[in-house]
Description:
The structure is a homodimer of 399-residue chains.
Chain A: H1 2-22, H2 28-35, H3 39-51, E1 55-57, E2 73-75, E3 80-87, E4 91-97, E5 103-110, H4 116-136, E6 140-148, E7 151-152, E8 158-161, E9 166-169, H5 171-181, E10 189-193, H6 194-205, E11 213-219, E12 223-229, E13 232-233, H7 270-278, H8 287-295, H9 299-322, E14 327-331, H10 340-352, E15 361-364, H11 371-385
Parallel strand pairs in A: 3-6, 6-10, 11-14, 14-15
Antiparallel strand pairs in A: 1-2, 3-4, 4-5, 7-8, 8-9, 11-12, 12-13
Helix pairs in contact in A: 1-3, 2-3, 4-5, 6-11, 7-9, 9-10
Amino acid sequence: MAGSQRMLKRLNRMAIVRHVKARPGLARGELAGLVGLAESTVSVLVGELIEDGWLRQDGSRGTGAVGRRPKALELDSSRLALVGAEVGDDFINAVACGLQGEVLFSRRIDYRHVEQGQSIRDTAALVAEARAAVLAGRRKVLGAGVAVAGMVDTEGFLRLAPSIGWRDVPFGELLAASLAERRAADMPVKVLNDANAAALSEYVFGAGPAVGSLVFLSLGYGVGAGIVLEGGLHVGYDGLAGEVGHTILKVDGALCACGRRGCAETILSQKVISRQATGREAPVLLVSELVALLDQGDATLKQVVREAGEHLGLVLQNLVVTINPEVLILGGPLSRLQGLVDVAVEELQRLTGSLPYHRTEVRVCRFGLNAAAVGAAGSVLHQALHPLAHSIGSGDLAA
Amino acid sequence: MAGSQRMLKRLNRMAIVRHVKARPGLARGELAGLVGLAESTVSVLVGELIEDGWLRQDGSRGTGAVGRRPKALELDSSRLALVGAEVGDDFINAVACGLQGEVLFSRRIDYRHVEQGQSIRDTAALVAEARAAVLAGRRKVLGAGVAVAGMVDTEGFLRLAPSIGWRDVPFGELLAASLAERRAADMPVKVLNDANAAALSEYVFGAGPAVGSLVFLSLGYGVGAGIVLEGGLHVGYDGLAGEVGHTILKVDGALCACGRRGCAETILSQKVISRQATGREAPVLLVSELVALLDQGDATLKQVVREAGEHLGLVLQNLVVTINPEVLILGGPLSRLQGLVDVAVEELQRLTGSLPYHRTEVRVCRFGLNAAAVGAAGSVLHQALHPLAHSIGSGDLAA
């Protein structure tokens, strides 16, 4: 019973934080109505949340009425923090954020993966650095999320990271061990897929009104989608959902790294663009190098990017008719290539012009190259805010 | 307040029915624990549900304990009924079902749509016939669902039925008017997409343990998918989700009825199979005619079906890596073509052999040609059982 009362209290606390996050400026009385609790109970919980660094009250708010003015509540951006990192195909990135996604610390290094253990130790070093920066600023760390360009199960086990060449790595465990060696293991660590993390960056920290569904398409060595539907990530039965880089677009097309032919990644990826621009398989140019070439007016690359944009439009159209999200968000390193996104959006409009009623909005991601790292940090907040996430949808809550 | 108490009572009643549906044989005491109500309250509600025809108690159940044996509850299959219909490209089908999906009445007619009003009147006639059959059996009708091969919005407005050639038809309204003329309008009528309806037939009335997610792929004139995720239909922001027949599989492929090139439907549909088998655009052979040709050993058609099966495998693989459902279910008229499904499953295995951990199960639908009509009937039950469906996922329930 004590356990279920603690859980109930946690649910009520987080319900309050969710409401304040969605509508900054709420007063205790309004909150009581929204969460269905007595105002006195809400006051006690709000007091605790203020003490714990979740909320702050911002002086008074004019109501037009005579008498004591209710105190407006909002998220406190100054005392709690989230750490996030991304292990990319040719970089490692770490960030620390506040509760509203404000990036407090960010460090990104170009990286060539050679040995697995070394990559994990170098990731742990960056995560520890972000944590230390947060602590130095006198904030408490709620937890860390680490995004990896591969298939990750719910226990942080990395099944496959095709571009890096890793398979069956207990990534979460090894990372935690490496953080412990650095005495930086005093926070929960969550591992997730990079596209899923990127999707959460927009969902958890998105500007403007909350969206009901979104697909984040991450463009780099691979093409992966993170899918948010009805309030949470849709990762699929085996965690394979969103692996749109391996949808087959060309029957009998070019050979893919996955062993099949005609996957989207065989016509749209950093490797393909690099090869078409240089005429060589290796080395694969960094996106910064591709950007520099475009800036220099490289005509071949410009044409290559144009064709990649057309293929991207095709991938977008297939997502619109299959999942039909409210918003499609483009991110990942390749989204920085001048012209790619514009051509893709044009092509999507051309392709869907004959489909009536399609209103999916396409936009470029808010956090740029930090999207997956910020979203990994956001996954920690999302989990804290939705303690019952895995029960919702079972229908039992309606009882 | 009276309104919200009525709603609360409705929620509690339907929670009880959901639990008994999921676990037939429950007793009142077990139910009280499951729904979180006092046993006395549950007893009152169960009494009403028995009176209203939802539940029945099946004598006594041995518990091994001494004393009065608790009464086992189960869905009552004898007193309530659901009506369902499907308006197909070349047929109209109507059914009536009990609460467990038992088909009580079924009538299917081959149909060539000529004039919209006439098609709607003929549909109303079949729906009225199913209703009359149910009433003659002294059952109460909970409502009717009608599935259409097209894009339908939540208000029963048919935006587009490309194969029939209808656009912007207030289908639900016209159907209700036609039912009123027949004095058969004493039940709510719900209009939905055929693939979505078919998906619900498996989700609401599926045999075996409940699945968390499923995609029903309906194969006929068009190729459409119904998607059930986390307890409900995923129809997408504009109701376009699952229009996988219009995913582009061949860049610069054949022209599609939708005006684009290379859509899945240009390589996999009843029209294409008929044309390839006969060498003529029209008339499009009925599936029964195709089945007869295969039975006669038509070698051309056999090869055509084999190729269609390979393309179907490709569509299945793209669904596995995009949505990754627990179960993929194949239905629609074309699924009756000998060999098609076997080849598709083989091809899916070949294509996904190199993808580790994929466990999506593929199976043929349970209700055969009645799937969409039974599912349309099931949608009435699903809606009744989940009065809060549109609130779930907002997160507010967790408060």
